[in-house]
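Technical appendix A lists one of the benchmark inputs used to test multi-chain prediction within the project. The record comprises two sequence entries:
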Amino acid sequence: MKAGIVVIAEISTDGLTPASRGVISFAGLLAEAAGEDMLVLLPGHFPDINQPPCRGAGAVQHGNPSSGTGELGGWSHKEAEEIAAAAGCDAAVLAGDHLAAYSAEAWMAALSPLCREIDPRFICIPHTSRGWDYGPGLAVRLEASLIGAVEGFRRQGGNFFFKRSFLKGQWQMEVLPDKRPVVLTILPEAKGTEAAPHATERPAGMRGRPPRVSFLSGPAKDLRTKTLGRLSATETAYDFSEAEVIVAAGKGIGAAENIDLIKRLAGIFPKSAVGCSRAVCDLGWMEYRRQIGMTGRTVAPPLYIACGVSGAMPHLAGMRNSRCIIAVNRDKSAAIFQIAHLGVVEDLLTFIPSVLELLENRKQESSDD
Amino acid sequence: MSDRPEIKAGDEASFPLTMPSPDDNCYRFNPFDEYAVEEALRIRDSFTGVTVDALSLGPERCRRVLLRALEMGANNATLLHLDRPAPLTPFETASILAAYLRDKAYDLILTGVMAEDGMHGQTGQLIAALLDMPCATAVISERLLAPRGPVYVEREEDGGERTAYEIDLPAVLTIQSGINRPRYPALSHVLRARTQEIATLDAAPLLPAARERIVGVSRMESSTTCTFLAGTPAEKAGQFLDFCRQRGFLTP
């Protein structure tokens, strides 16, 4: 099995994860630009795919099936083909009991011999808590180039340059890989992934034949990481789903006592909620259950008001699909303005009080009329 | 760097290599690393015979960070000295650190989950892979079951979910923010730290051949899609309210 572009997709109880669909779309553009074939790898727990074609990767070793994670009930052969069809290009299921309950060590052990055999130019991985976890170690095992949190690419001659942001999203860098393969962990909004919903209709590098699905088994040997299982959340996540307006506090609010201002601003809207960035939780100014971002909630309300939020990637990951975004920040170069529709460059401690005061005055006037 | 392939003509990045200068005020103790130092000190304090060594790679200004680690209570500090204008890739950083750590027989290597500036979040995993150690990232809870391990960890995943693992030592843990409250140094430690020597080693010979190169760095342009409100703060407040009302978020 050979391919120029490999996507390592993640599957959840609903099939391909949205992040994986985004990466498949991104990889399709990369395949087009590089003139390469594309193959999607699906590591996971497929209980009925226990007998090979088991090539290269070694014998199937059945671990304790009741590893206690309850994460996935496992996928059937037929479902595997549906997931592969949704990917819209050739796919290889990499089955193993130990691949259900994710651990970086198990995934790397299963994926690295297979990737070596496929010998791709680019390995595209979603920049999720998994992809970001095992991607670097996979790159070392393959002696590959490694670029993380990729937001876009540019081809110039035979070279591909990959773009990523840093310093709270206010700076960007371009990285040129020197090795083959190149391991990329790709952000869901990476350039080209806007087309994600249509990805299934646009088979990349298919050469006009229906997608093929292969079934492989990954080895589980000598793992030094024992997966004990998923834990139930320590505190119930705040339910943002009913809120029409979410007012979020960032570190820029400056002090715990200013949270009250954020609450008062939220209070002027009929259906509102108060959230915050991770930094605010780490400082102990708000509870973790209200955290919005990569390791918190993902929200997409009709209106999101970001107050003193710098707009670093992990926070944007949790709110960038909000229908309308207003950002209030003293620093005009804050990255949050890159995705905001309306920008207010002001000090929150003066701006919010003047909003509250003005609203009060207007109410008085209208009741005087 | 002369020992590395030149960027050939036609390879130019779309923007030049302009690093943020030190007066951009972006150089300080990476807050994620403070959590890692604190966690190391807590482990040491719960077992006998454990020592904590702080390690930093970079130019002279990294001494400030190591001094702070000593003030917090680290036993020893070592600076892997490297001063070059171009930014290091995580692979270069990890390779140098791994080369230094290889024969040191540490049981546990802790890093911050990411650097606040580069935000790669790769160095810990790379060190682990280069030293063939298991690794847990984004560790939000940790309990060393015995001085020589294994270590019980909870790793934070997307949406704040957690998965628990038990990992054999030696291992690398990358520490997530919020796992603890980093301490303020006690006065006695501050005074002691002043007398402690920071070992210094030239890291240049440990620099590996690059596998990827940062070829362009630039500041983002101001947003072109965002409409910025103009006027006095009071005028902006009025426009803000009008905007919300027009879109039906505020009752008229």
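The domain at 5-217 of chain A is CATH 3.40.50.620 (Rossmann fold). Residues 358 and 364 of chain A are 10 Å apart (CA to CA). Comparable benchmark entries are summarised in Table A2.
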